[in-house]
Amino acid sequence: MNVNNKDFIRHMQNINEYINNEVNFSDFKDKFDPRDLPGVNGIMIVFSFVIFEEIYLVKDNPFFLNVYDLVEKSKANGTIDKKLVDIYQQNYTSIDSIFSNKLNEIKKIILKDQYSNYLNLIKKGSEDIAKKIFNKCLSKVDDKVLDDFNVIDRDYLRYKNKSFVLELIPNLPLYVMDDDKETILKLAYLICFPYQQFMSSVIFDDGWKTFPLKWKKDLQIPIIKQLLFQHNQGEDLTSVFEENYNNNEFSVLNNLLESNFLLPPVNHMLCSRKEIIHEIIKNYKNGSYASALYASLPQIESPVLNLYGPCLQSIDP
Q: Which of 47, 92, 96, 238 has the CA that lies 20 to 30 A from 279?
């Protein structure tokens, strides 16, 4: 485990902030006993990880249908059926092998020819030396590999500590669930597929490699999963970007450019180009599309050349 306690605490605070900001508790505040708040938090956070397109893909699965029936009966009885507790515990335990495999895969990428040496040191009990070798290799990887490793490492720690995950206990406060089928379907889905409550299930999806909006850090998890699903179905996501920035006369982009907390990768590329971008927006709004286009292209080409120019120069024509 590479994440230190401070990093993990910060990660948990981010998740907690996500719950408070994105999940509307006002509809539930009068429905539950304050002593049940941890259980309510668990229900709400995991529901935010599930989209109906995922459920639709398993709607005819006999195992899922059986679990759905048990959840429906549990809701009616006001207590979780013991069979559901056993099913979820078995499925949750099986996630450990998924995390272990993913971590081993990415460690091979990070450690390269040091991987065998790293494993031997771990077997011999020389974990401190192994950790130093790993951290040295980790400091040399690109941002993508580092981001992927941090996501899976934090998820694994969260899995081990059962932090902000669904804990299926007999006295789970099911009374806060609505009477419609939405929450029952989502709960049944997560009992069957508990790995889906972790972000690593998204970034290790086959379609993530070609997903065009990975850079857009302000998207919330349900929206990312929704867009990734559409991308996997072959849908063009260009309109998502256009609608996000062209709405209200580019107010989103204008606000972003003036923010003191610019999100990556904007803060690496566009901070020194704010005035030019404002001029481009002005030309576009005035109908001077040619001027806007010609002024836009260098703002794309320049960062690309800065990032990849040395690599391109080393390639023989």
A: 238
* Domain membership flag for residue 200: yes
CA proximity to 279, closest of 261, 257, 260, 259: 257
CA distance 298 to 269: 12
pLDDT digits (tens, 9 = 90+) for 154-172: 999 989 988 778 888 776 7
Residue 53 contacts residue 145 (beta carbons within 8 Å): no
Same domain? 259 vs 173:
no
Place of tokens 């790995």: 195
* Nearest alpha-carbon partner for 279 in 290, 263, 291, 271: 291
State whether 253 and 197 are in the same domain: no
Assess if residue 221 is contained within a domain.
no
Whether the pLDDT of residue 14 is over 70: the answer is no
Instruction: Give just the sign of the alpha carbon dihedral 263, 26, 168, 13.
Output: positive
Tokens of 16: 């907690």
Q: Supply the range of the domain harboring residue 293.
A: 249-313
Are 11 and 97 part of one and the same domain?
yes
- Do residues 186 and 47 make contact, with C-beta atoms less than 8 angstroms apart? yes
pTM: 0.66
The token pair at 250 is 């580019």
- Dig out the tokens for 266 from the structure: 């904007």
Q: Same domain, yes or no, for 155 and 57? A: yes
pLDDT at 213: 80
Residues 58, 186: one domain?
yes
* Distance separating alpha carbons of residues 44 and 10, to the nearest angstrom: 20
* Residues 274, 257 contacting (CB under 8 angstroms): yes
* Residue 1 tokens, joined: 């485990």
In angstroms, the CA 120 to CA 133 distance is 12
pLDDT per residue over 45-71, tens digit each? 666 788 888 888 898 999 999 999 999
Provide the number of structural domains found in the chain.
2
| Structure tokens that stand for 261 in this block | 């907390």
